[in-house]
């Protein structure tokens, strides 16, 4: 279709983060007739994307607007940020139980890298390559990356793309 713009949104499958992406996609789908919305995430979000897509179409019908195209889901192989942070090696739960104080604050700060990037180097690289695959398949006109989707943000910055963050 002439004039159809492809929008690609990358998000973790954790609903605290993904809800913002799904709400954004919902509003864009209703407001913009010339957009095809692609959402790339982990398997855990597939049903949420499908539900959000149906809800968007139902909302458009209730508002007597043209039925938007359904969202296109792209699976990223790997573990989303939330479950990855709960691994024993991040020590997040032990740190949350520490009493306040200077020493314990330093312990909390010391685990921040493991919490922000909780994957092994191999896992991170594999997911990075997955984001490349999806990006190449979609060939988007605009890419939006939620802030904790580190793998794609790093690649966009290395390509000097402007990265829109929600």
Q: What is this structure's SSE topology?
A:
Layout: E1 5-10, H1 15-31, E2 35-41, H2 46-62, E3 72-75, H3 81-85, H4 92-96, H5 102-110, H6 112-116, H7 121-138, E4 142-145, H8 150-158
Parallel strand pairs: 1-2, 1-4, 2-3
Protein name: Glycosyltransferase sdnJ
Organism: Fusarium oxysporum f. sp. raphani
Task: Please characterize this protein's 3D structure.
The chain is of the alpha/beta class and 166 residues long. The chain folds into 2 domains: 1-78 and 120-166, Glycogen Phosphorylase B (Rossmann fold, 3-Layer(aba) Sandwich), CATH 3.40.50; 80-118, no CATH class. It contains 8 helices and 4 strands; from the N terminus they run βαβαβαααααβα. It has helices at residues 15-31, 46-62, 81-85, 92-96, 102-110, 112-116, 121-138, 150-158; strands spanning 5-10, 35-41, 72-75, 142-145. Strands 3-2-1-4 form a 4-stranded parallel sheet, with helices on both faces. α1 (15-31) links the parallel β1 and β2 (35-41). α1 (15-31) packs parallel to α2. The protein is elongated and about 60 Å long. The relative contact order is 0.19.
The CATH topology assignment of the largest domain is: Rossmann fold
Q: Tell me the fraction of residues in β-strands, as a range.
A: 5-15%
Q: Which architecture of the largest domain per CATH?
A: 3-Layer(aba) Sandwich
Q: Rg, please?
A: 18 Å
> What's the count of strands?
4
Which residues form runs of ≥5 with pLDDT under 50? 162-166
The CATH class name of the largest domain reads Alpha Beta
N-to-C terminal Cα separation, in Å?
A: 28 Å
Secondary-structure element series = EHEHEHHHHHEH
What is the 3D form?
A: elongated
Share of helix, binned: 40-55%
Overall mean pLDDT score? 87
Provide the domain count: 2
């Amino acid at each position: 279709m002439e004039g159809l713009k492809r929008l690609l949104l990358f998000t973790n499958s954790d609903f605290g983060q993904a809800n913002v992406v799904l709400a954004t996609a919902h509003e864009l789908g209703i407001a913009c007739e010339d957009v095809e919305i692609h959402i790339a995430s982990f398997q855990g979000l597939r049903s949420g994307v499908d539900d959000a897509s149906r809800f968007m179409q139902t909302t458009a019908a209730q508002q007597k607007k043209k039925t938007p195209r359904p969202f296109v889901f792209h699976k990223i192989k790997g573990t989303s940020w939330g479950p990855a942070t709960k691994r024993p090696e991040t020590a997040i739960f032990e740190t949350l139980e520490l009493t306040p104080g200077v020493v314990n604050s330093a312990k909390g700060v010391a685990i921040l890298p493991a919490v922000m990037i909780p994957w092994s180097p191999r896992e991170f690289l594999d997911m990075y390559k997955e984001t490349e695959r999806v990006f190449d398949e979609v060939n988007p006109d605009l890419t939006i990356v939620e802030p904790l989707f580190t793998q794609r943000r790093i690649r966009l910055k290395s390509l000097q793309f402007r990265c829109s963050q929600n």
